[in-house]
Design goal:
It is built from ten helices and ten strands. The chain is of the alpha+beta class. A four-stranded mixed β-sheet has the order 1-4-5-8, with helices on one face. A hairpin with a 4-residue loop joins strand 9 and strand 10. The N and C termini lie far apart (48 Å).
Length: 377
């Protein structure tokens, strides 16, 4: 087992898992877990070795995120979005920020979703205009994971002057003009601090631009989308592993006293548990094939990238629903953990690109049509 996975296991056991129930119940940010991951170098997992990072691959990031999701979906989501943002910063960001991420001292995240364009992250309404001090950003971002806790946002806007759907920026989270209209209080992933952020006259230097003006969509497709899709599927995989384990433990330990047998001795229960296992294993095969396709640069890599989140998100909903049904009234109690994973699993299907949008993209791909020929203004 790689050293980083050994460190991860220790952090999950000692920090992340013990705090998970309280993180969910109170809706608080998992600060202890994120700090522990930073201290162990895991926030710098995919940062290049030249800036002090571990230089690991997307496959390693998938392993880390899945393991975290088995213990705490909120912590997994925070780290997932950090890796998505880091993938852009590694390619286009300043060295000092890259080094800070590698040291585990800088948490970043994506700021793509907007109130006006809804889940169509590729069509931002936020603006970037030159003024005397640099570039002025104005926006109403609808959901930013780790809002108020991250150190920077990988921010999307319309281009300053160039053609193209969007431009990306590295915006310090403490920039003057940023505000949060309210804290997150949602159904699932309650500790990921995903909340709206408003930018009113936020000024950044031209050097804050990540890549070229108007080329943000290309960067998002080549850097962000593969990480986002694969790691989102990894979160779903971790949630499924957790509920399958908890369901099996519950069925094996809970008895029908009047029949002198456990719930697990019922053929109906065993069959449904087996179906949960098969469903999760099918998603694991697709996830591993998506990673293999990306690593080998296969012709079907983009198709697998589109498929992996859409499939895993919907399967996780089904698997966690089965867990709730199999465990009955016990599953509704907070301490079992199934109810929490049931709620957390529902987030992926509505996170942009949503399951519906991804299915449309897959259909377009199969027909040889452009993915966004009607969506990009």
């Amino acid at each position: 087992m790689p050293d980083y996975l050994d460190s991860l296991e220790t952090i999950v056991r000692d920090v992340v898992a013990p705090a998970a129930q309280d993180v969910d119940a109170s809706g608080r940010f998992p600060t202890e877990g994120v700090k522990a991951l930073g201290s162990a170098g895991l926030l710098g997992l995919i940062s290049a070795t030249e800036v002090g990072g571990m230089g690991q691959s997307m496959r390693a990031a998938s392993q880390v995120v899945e393991r975290l999701a088995r213990a705490c979906g909120s912590t997994a989501m925070v780290v997932m979005m950090h890796y998505c943002g880091t993938s852009v910063i590694e390619g286009y960001g300043p060295r000092d920020v890259r080094e800070a991420i590698a040291r585990g001292e800088h948490l970043t995240t994506l700021a793509f979703s907007e109130a006006g364009s809804r889940s169509h992250f590729w069509s931002p309404l936020s603006t970037a205009t030159r003024d005397g001090a640099g570039v002025r950003l104005d926006a109403k971002k609808s959901w930013i994971t780790s809002a108020g806790h991250a150190d920077s946002y990988v921010w999307s806007s319309r281009p300053v002057a160039a053609e193209g759907p969007m431009t990306l920026w590295l915006v310090p989270a403490g920039a003057q003009g940023l505000s949060q209209p309210g804290a997150f209080d949602g159904l699932g992933l309650r500790g990921n601090a995903s909340s709206p952020v408003i930018a009113e006259g936020v000024t950044v230097p031209e050097t804050a631009m990540l890549g070229e003006d108007g080329k943000g969509f290309d960067i998002a497709m080549s850097h962000v989308l593969p990480y986002f899709q694969v790691l989102s599927a990894s979160v779903s995989a971790g949630l499924m592993e957790a509920v399958i384990e908890e369901t099996a433990n519950h069925l094996g330990a809970t008895r029908y006293e009047h029949l002198d047998r456990t719930l697990g001795q019922s053929p109906v229960s065993r069959i449904e548990l087996a179906q949960m296992r098969l469903a999760a294993d099918r998603e694991r095969v697709l996830l591993q094939d998506a990673l293999a396709a990306i690593e080998a640069g296969r012709d079907d890599a983009m198709l697998r990238v589109l498929e992996v989140k859409a499939s895993a998100a919907e399967t996780a909903v089904d698997v966690t629903d089965s867990a709730m049904k199999l465990c009955g009234g016990s599953a509704f109690r907070k301490e079992l953990g199934i109810e929490r994973r049931f709620r957390d699993a529902r987030a992926a299907r509505v996170m942009a690109p949503t399951s519906g949008a991804l299915l449309d993209f897959i259909g377009r791909s199969l027909l040889g049509q452009p993915l966004l020929d009607e969506a990009v203004p």
